[in-house]
Design a protein that fits this description.
A hairpin with a 5-residue loop joins strand 9 and strand 10. With about 180 residues, the chain is mainly beta. It has a single domain, classed as Lipid/polyisoprenoid-binding, YceI-like (Lipocalin, Beta Barrel), CATH 2.40.128.110. It contains one helix and eleven strands; from the N terminus they run ββββββαβββββ.
Length: about 180
């Protein structure tokens, strides 16, 4: 079987997250600088080798003070740990034609933990310039404290400021290389 290499189209992809703030609302953010590649057998993504990396200094929540805090040692410690990475260990089809489970190892601040994401495969299409593209919607949840992102504060009423649970929601478009 032929090996096919895929690269991420960052102009048509988004790596975002959402976390509860004060347990009454959500803060949404994303990483503006990221890379990803995949290696498949032909155009079938089952058993694909997938690698992802995001620049933690590129975090954007539309609030400069909060973004700087997230880059600080109390969260990502971006000077010491400028990248977070994901390496897939399996990509398996579920019951329906477009439903998959993606498992792999997520590393943040040099802490690596296994994670599982639900994937909706959008399909494969050829763009007007002859490039083959594949689309994915990826969802999951991690516990930020598992990775050493432990800063928090308590409100007057005893509630916490930042939830430990972080929801990941990404749209990814890959382009067949070569």
């Amino acid at each position: 079987m032929a090996t096919t290499k895929w690269g991420i189209d960052t102009a048509h992809s988004e790596i975002s997250f959402r976390v509860k703030h004060m347990m009454i609302s959500n803060v949404t953010g994303w990483f503006e600088s990221f890379t990803a590649d995949a290696e498949t057998e032909n155009d079938d993504f089952t058993a694909a080798k997938i690698n992802f990396s995001a620049d933690t200094t590129s975090i954007n929540t539309r609030n400069e003070a909060r973004d700087n805090h997230l880059r600080s040692p109390e969260f990502f410690a971006s000077e010491e740990f400028p990248k977070m990475t994901f390496t897939a260990t399996s990509y398996e089809k579920n019951g329906s034609a477009d439903s998959y489970t993606l498992k792999g190892d997520l590393t943040i601040r040099d802490v690596t933990k296994p994670v599982t994401f639900a994937v909706e495969f959008g399909g494969v299409a050829t763009d007007p310039w002859g490039n083959l593209r594949a689309g994915f919607e990826i969802n999951g949840e991690i516990n930020r404290t598992d990775y050493g992102l432990t800063w928090n504060a308590v409100t007057e009423a005893g509630g916490i400021v930042v939830s430990d649970a972080v929801k990941i929601h990404s749209h990814v478009e890959l382009i067949k290389q070569g």
